[in-house]
Design goal:
- This protein folds into two domains: 81 residues; 107 residues, Helix Hairpins, CATH 1.10.287.
- It is 89% helix and 0% strand.
- The chain is built from seven helices and no strands.
- The model has no long low-confidence stretch (mean pLDDT 77).
């Protein structure tokens, strides 16, 4: 009976603390206006296509709340002597950092993909080359696929296969970039050097 009462107190207090910490994290990210930065990078448009509303503070706050809720359940199970359940929760807690890092990798991938796409399109247009939109989209999806594979690797899903795919993907990008420069980039580079030479001569 004392163990049950103690477990109940731990459960109530722990869940209250977990909810409070989650709210603090949510308010902190809202105050830092992280969503506004992500919107400028085009992340909100990408999430809208998946019918997902951008609210990073709420998402991270929920992660923090669930993490401490699991810690609370682990403490309760230890008090009640539920060894098997405690072992399961310990494994969940050990795996939780992988999930958090995987989310950050994918989020960073989306941000980098949006930025790289705009950079490539602007560079191609500035060089007066064709297919600026296509090359921008190709760059975006290349970065997203790479980020997705890195996320799977972090989660430990088919690790050997994912690592092989990542190596192959990087090699493919390097080969494609080399071919693109070799076949179409030489003329652009020659034109740029000729323009630079004429400006220096003036």
């Amino acid at each position: 009976m004392p163990n049950l009462l103690g477990a109940l107190i731990i459960l109530i207090v722990g869940l209250v603390i977990a909810a409070g910490l989650g709210k603090i994290v949510e308010k902190l990210f809202d105050a830092l206006k992280v969503d506004r930065l992500l919107e400028q990078l085009g992340l909100d448009k990408i999430l809208d296509r998946a019918d997902i509303r951008l609210h990073s503070g709420h998402f991270l706050g929920a992660l923090v709340q669930w993490f401490f809720a699991i810690v609370t359940l682990l403490a309760v199970s230890d008090v009640l002597g539920l060894a098997a359940f405690s072992d399961f929760l310990q494994q969940v807690l050990l795996y939780a950092p992988n999930i958090a890092i995987a989310v950050l990798i994918m989020l960073a991938g989306v941000v980098v993909a949006a930025f790289a796409s705009k950079l490539v399109r602007a560079s191609v247009l500035a060089a007066r080359l064709h297919s600026a939109r296509f090359l921008g989209a190709l760059t975006k999806w290349a970065v997203l696929i790479f980020a997705f594979l890195a996320t799977l690797s972090q989660l430990g899903i088919a690790g050997a296969l994912v690592n092989t795919l990542i190596m192959g993907f990087v090699a493919m990008l390097a080969l494609a970039g080399g071919l693109a420069f070799g076949l179409g980039g030489r003329d652009a580079a020659a034109a740029w050097l000729e323009k630079l030479k004429s400006e220096v001569s003036k």
